[in-house]
Amino acid sequence: MVERSDPARTGVNAGRIVGLLTATLAVVSLLQSQASFYEIATALLDAFGIESSLSVSALFWGNVAIAASARYVVGYVVGSLVGVVYDWLDRPSLPVLVGMVLVVGVVDGFLAGIDTRSVGIGSAYVVAWLCYVPAFVWLSDDDANDVRSGPRRLGDS
């Protein structure tokens, strides 16, 4: 059984929130570059003699779907790992959690900023990752009795 106050489980749930936020940012940044994507993809497909009208649209929206899904998965997995490290460190103070999340957010934001060539998008990724901390604190149940394990049931306090 899993403890009710399991930080890894809490990290997964907080990571889902971050995943949704970063997936939204990925979709927004791709929509901003949609025109240039269409131009480049059309030129490439025309160079190979492929009819490009429907193909380019399918490529673009497929790319958007994959990017959004990947961002959600990254938030989910990394959120869980942050929760595991937090538990491994014997649940240190809040500034340690903020520091761990800030490192992840800065790296992710730096890579996103390079990819999009936008400091604003990169900064938005850092802010999205910082949303992990209040979500983690809100979702964690430090008052749960460590002797009891398993999922919460209706009517349990």
In the predicted model, the low-confidence regions spanning at least 5 consecutive residues are none
Average pLDDT = 87
The end-to-end span amounts to: 18 Å
For the secondary structure, the number of strands is 0
Structural class: mainly alpha
Rg over alpha carbons: 20 Å
Shape: elongated
Instruction: Kindly estimate the percentage of residues that lie in beta strands according to DSSP.
Output: under 5%
Order of helices and strands: HHHHHH
Q: Provide the number of structural domains.
A: 1
As an assembly, this protein is single chain
Largest sheet: none
What descriptive keywords fit this protein?
76% helix, mainly alpha, elongated, single chain, 157 residues
Descriptive account of the structure:
The protein is mainly alpha-helical. It contains 6 helices and no strands. The longest helix has 36 residues. The model has no long low-confidence stretch (mean pLDDT 87).
Q: Which helices and strands, and how do they pair?
A:
Elements: H1 7-32, H2 34-47, H3 53-88, H4 94-116, H5 119-130, H6 132-139
Helix pairs in contact: 1-3, 1-5, 1-6, 2-3, 4-5
Explain briefly what this protein structure is:
The chain is mainly α and 157 residues long. The chain has one domain (7-139). The chain has helices at residues 7-32, 34-47, 53-88, 94-116, 119-130, 132-139.
